[in-house]
Every structure is written in C-alpha cells, then in structure tokens.
Amino acid sequence: MLFIIGVAITCLVPFLYMIALSLSSNNAIISQKVSLWPVEFTLETYKTILSDVDMIYTLGYTIVLTILYTIICMFLTICAAYPLTKKRLKGRDFVLTILVITMYFSGGLIPSYILVKNLDLMNSMWSLILPGAMSVFNLIILKTFFASLPESLEESASIDGCNELGILFRIILPLSMPSIATLSLFYAVDRWNGFQDALFYITDKNLYPMQLKLYQIITANQQLDTQQGEGSVGAFIVPESLKAASVMFATVPILVVYPKLQKYFVEGVMTGAIKG
After folding, report:
1. CA-CA distance, 38 to 31, in Å (whole number)?
2. Which long-range contacts (CB under 8 A, 24 or more apart) does 249-257 make?
3. How would DSSP label each residue in 71-107?
4. Which stretches are transmembrane (predicted)?
C-alpha cells in the first residue's frame, strides 16, 4: 500500500507542478516562488496557445494521426491474432517464433531510415504509421485473450452456418472489447507521445505531430537562453509558463480519453496476460 502511495505521489507531484507553472505569472516563476500552487494566477499563456493557429492545427492533425494509427494497428493486430489461435493453422508455431524474435532484434535506426526513404514515405503521415503498425507484444496479449474464449461458442456458430469472418465479427470481437479497448489505448498513447520518428522522417512543419511541436518550442527556448548568456541583444525568451502550458495542452486530450477506457484496462490486460 505504501509503495502504491509513493508511486502515486511521484507521478502526481510533477504534474501538479506543471499545472502551477502554466497558471503562474512569468515574474513569479523567475523569482522561484512557484511550488505546487499557482502564484499570481493568470490564463495568459493558455490564451496565447489557443490564439496560435499553428498549435491548434497541430492538435487537430495529431488527433487525426492518432485515430488513424490506432485503427490501422488494431485492424492488423486482430487479423494476425485471430488466425494464430487456430491449431489447424499450418506453420503457426513458426510464425509465432518469427514474431517473437522481432521483439528482441531489429534492423536498427539506420536501416529503418533507409527503408522509409526508399519507400518514398519521407515527409508523409504514413512514415509515422506504417513502420510501427503492429506491436508483437499487443498481438500476444490479444491472441491469448482470443484463445481463452470457449471453443463451444465457435462450434455453435459454425453449426448455424456462420463462416470465420462471421464468427470473428459477431462473437469474438464483441466478447473481446476489454482487451480491444486496452490495446487501443496502448496504441493511441504510443502514437500521441511519439516524436523521435517524426524528428527523423518529417521536415515539413505542417506535418509535425504535437510532441515534436513541443520539442521544437523547448529546443528554441534553450537556444535563445544560450544566446542571451553569450551576450546577444534582443533575444526573445519563451516564458517557462508558456512551455508548461504547452505541455498541459498536449496532455489533456489523453487524460480525457483515459478515464473512459479505464474500466476495461485492468480486465483486458489481466485476462490477456494470465488466461490460456
């Protein structure tokens, strides 16, 4: 119990600090008066963000990117996991072995970059979707969940004349909503928080996802701080409150979605990991 409380505090304190920074004046932040409660409360940073057309566009683009990525990933994961539950599938163990090997070994960063470039996916939304379109870890969880369902359900549906697709869409998927919702959350959070692939594959600012946008803001601030330290004149410093507000702006959408899927979270992961 104490361990759980400690973990909760460790996660909560930085979050509260970022909220306090985003709602405090820049003078209070520079004076180091802000701790876990806003000082000289202000909403100017949020007004600045909401009035920034580029930031709103990036938010909308990232939402569309995340939704599309999640749909494609779940489609591929379901299409791979369901057949692998069938003992009559020839070569099933070999396919599973190959998939598991990819969890431990990969081509590396440079081969991945060359592959994306040769496929002409640079500066494209698809460069952020296709390379990571299926997680083997999530595939194994969903496969185990499918395998835990009673075979009698499929046998009854087959007797009634239902084919494999009918069994999948009418019986298996409705019963697997806890796992599907959980894995969808995994995929969505992974894409929402991802910026490294965009850093390598995207140079068009119109295609920047939210995390790369935030990365650019923080990097620009650090560069300007360095210039000011070297004595340059007229350097514009991005306020710490604006950086904090930008982080909160990117975090809120996931925080809104998570509670709606939380009821499926524990059930989906535990069933998929333990049963079978």
Report:
1. 13
2. 249/46, 249/49, 249/55, 249/59, 250/59, 250/192, 250/210, 250/211, 250/213, 250/214, 253/59, 253/63, 253/192, 254/188, 254/189, 254/192, 257/185, 257/188
3. HHHHHHHHHHHTGGG-TTSTTHHHHHHHHHHHHH---
4. 55-82, 94-116, 128-146, 167-189
- Of residues 63 and 43, the one with the higher pLDDT is 63
Q: Which of 187, 77, 54, 60 is nearest to 129 (CA)?
A: 187
Give the mean pLDDT of 236-264. Answer: 72
Q: What is the pLDDT of residue 237?
A: 43
- CB burial readout 36-70, b (16+ within 10 A) else e: eebbeebeebbeebeeeeebeebbebbeebbeebb
CA 205 – CA 172 distance, rounded (Å): 42
Lowest-pLDDT choice from 126-130, 136-140, 227-231: 227-231
Please give the model's pTM, rounded to 2 decimal places: 0.81
Identify whether the C-beta of residue 225 lies closer than 8 Å to the C-beta of residue 237. Answer: yes
